[in-house]
Amino acid sequence: MRHDVRLLASMKLTMFVLVVASGPAFAANLQAHDDCDADDPDRNIAGCTRIIEDADEGKTMRGVAYVARGLAWQKKGDLDRALADYTEAIKINPKDALAYNNRGMLWRERGDSDRAIADFTAAIAIDPLPRSDEAYSRRGNAIVAKRDVNVYENRALALLERSDFDGAIADFNSAINLDPNGADSFNGRGAALRAKGELDRAKADFSYAIKLDRTHMGAYYNRGLVEVAKGELDPAVADFTAALRLDSDFIDGYEARAEAFLAKTDPEHAIADLDQAIRRDPNRARDYYLRGSIRDDRYMGFLGGGWIEKEDLERAIADFADAIRLDDKSAAAHYALGLAESANGHRDRAALDLAEAVRLEPENQQFAAALKEIKP
């Protein structure tokens, strides 16, 4: 069972900011409050800063402004300043569930799951479903508006990334109890179930997420992964296609659909999808490796109609070389390039790459046998 980053595709963490100008401004001027609430991080920072620095503002309002400014810094990619603002908000109001939630999201973004889980746990103890005037949820690279946050969902995602699948499922269950119509929670629980190998239950959760939200790209994608694992290749292709229809730049979707086409022994469509993935991101070694493997297999007669094209071998060699250029620690790519070079009559080059594959994985008997055959 594969537990790579694609498992979490299109899941979300939700962050909050309260509308600051809830009434007439008696300290910082009304423009500062309007700016702090605006849909523009630069205006947010300017307006919220004026509120924070105004000694006449109450502690509650200043705490809210710190949260709003922290979110603005986070949108701009300045995680250190965002962290500092969320921490100040918590100092001012230790019962601010939104500040804990947002800081937890930031810790998770920085790869510190322990601190993320601690902050989500603190938020849950205060209010597991805090409401706000404006909230945002990440889905893939997009940010979509929401009206509230389910902190159990956020903690579940952090647990899922730590491979604590049972803990994640328990939190997704709690999230669903709080909000039975939360498509993201069903999608997340399905991902945890898939990671545990419970494919039928996972598929049921992804299907229910789609029923709740027909535009949920991640649920289509994740259901497709389950269908590939179950050998349901036509439905898988259909689900990956649905995900790509929702986001034509979703690179993992092209890669996954390519693998489904490959399982259907359809190398032409598989290569076409990998072409799309590589065009959108030319720095993914695995996509070159996959495309090279398909071309090499087609040249060797394992795929396609049996017609051998010399061009396939040359292109396979180029793809394997690109895979190694991007990841020179890939023993599989060195091995594949060695075999392809041997088939192309370049035994000296083949020996070098096979030797590197053996050096990287000395316990691999297949690699060692191939090198011995080339260089007894």
Q: What would your notes on this structure say?
A:
This protein is mainly alpha-helical. It has a domain at 282-376: Serine Threonine Protein Phosphatase 5, Tetratricopeptide repeat, CATH 1.25.40.10. It is built from 19 helices and 3 strands. It has helices at residues 30-37, 41-52, 59-75, 79-92, 97-109, 113-126, 151-161, 165-178, 183-195, 199-212, 217-229, 233-246, 251-263, 267-280, 285-299, 310-326, 331-343, 347-360, 365-374; strands spanning 14-17, 131-139, 142-148. Helix 7 (151-161) runs antiparallel to helix 8. The chain is elongated. The two termini are 37 Å apart. Mean pLDDT is 90; it is low at 1-10, 19-26 and 134-145.
